[in-house]
Amino acid sequence: METRNILIVDDAAADRESVAIALRRDTKVRYKIFEASTGQAGLDQIAELEDAVDLVFLDFGLPDMDANDFIEHMGPGHGVPLIPIVVLTGSMSPDTAGMAALQHGVQDFFTKDEVTSSVVSRIAHNAIERHRLLQRLIESEQQASKAVEKAVRADRAKSQFLALISHELRTPLTAILGFCRLLEQDPDNGDRTKMLRMVIDSGEHLEELLNDLIDIAKIEAGTLELDPVEFDPRELIRSTVALFEGRASDKGLELILDIDVSTPPAIRTDRVRLRQILVNLIGNAIKFTETGAVECHVQWNSEQASLEITVSDTGSGIPEPLVPNLFSPFNQGEISSEQKREGVGLGLAISKQLAEMMGGDLCVAHTDSTGTEFVATVAATSVASPIDSTGGTSRGTYETDLSGIRIVVADDTPANQFLLERLLTRQGARVTIVANGSELLDFIDNSDPPEVDVILMDMLMPVMNGFDATRELRQRGHQIPVIAVTAAASRDNQSVCIDAGCDIVVTKPIDLVELYFAIDKVT
To answer: How many Cα atoms are found within 13 Å in the side-chain-facing hemisphere of 9?
Structure first.
């Protein structure tokens, strides 16, 4: 049988007793009765019972306070008392007492001459149930209100983010288009080399920004996948830090790398994403440090089986109010405007998400006017024996001679056709251009034997796309190497390219080293 705690607050002992007797006669519910003769005594009882009271029968006119004062002393309840209350009255007319009580959120009222077992039990049951329903309704309304507020804040933050992204995209585009137009008008401009360097820098910045946006979109959609491989973390970290030596030197900063002897010679985790985290942390540290040093310390945590990377700087620090939103991509607009920081701050948001996906974390360990310290951890498996960790050819160091190699470029974009033809003929290749897969097949059919050593295949073309063209080539028995050239860099898309019959996948924007290396590999 259910037990309910009932508090009867009335200065008349006989009235308290009559209500208690009526409740005890209920055969369906067991009532545990508590009594108080004054309003303050009733409030004290509620406090002692730690709000475990299920219902209060309250005399409207008490010696020390009336029912309205009692309810106010119970604290805020969003228009409904925290505990259901039924008002008893004997000296006022029911209508007057009831209206006054109901305006303060009580569940019911009745006069003392109506006290019978059936009436009191029915009123008690209904009052408790109505109060429960009202509390649930209030909670639902509060949750809905909070959800609306959260949605409004998120919408506002995303609007600010999009406005900032628009600015960030237009900035490098302005430089690229502006310098190209200047060179078009004056090809012999004395600042030609400087302009071209700025075009390249702006293009690379634009590529980084677009990659960040794609990563954020994948993370938000839950489609970003890790690709764990075995590699030497020491070599990866050394080569990554070395990329920033020139930038640090230009600002007069000391760039310090300390790799603890505990770091194993080979681990298994996502090499590319680990490097991305490191690039973001060191890049930010150098960007926001004007004097002093940037230090990277690496060590292995054998207990946690994780790699710990600490990047510290001697910059001006991050204002405390901005720290909570530091890793939120859609709150970077406010940070950027207040701090006048360049960029949209996506790197930290992405890095934290990547670190968490890799079984670790990224946090701000320290920040004040003397500098900032970030600590990134990633889970990894220590591999017993050292391995070759180069992961391919170093960027910008690979050259090849393509003299005499016959290459067909299948691409429908005139700009890409022109670019690839120039890049390849400069290395001595003989290049033929076709605009789609159908033209490619016609070209091969009309030459016997096919005068083709390798095909660079754009995978999305009109008439016949690269997937269908490659499948058709293989079905006809042609074993000509096909290098897929695609802007879709996901592992799923690369797998589709390989399944269609391509030998290697090269992603756009085209990296010369990657392209030349791929051609060398298949010829």
So the answer is: 28
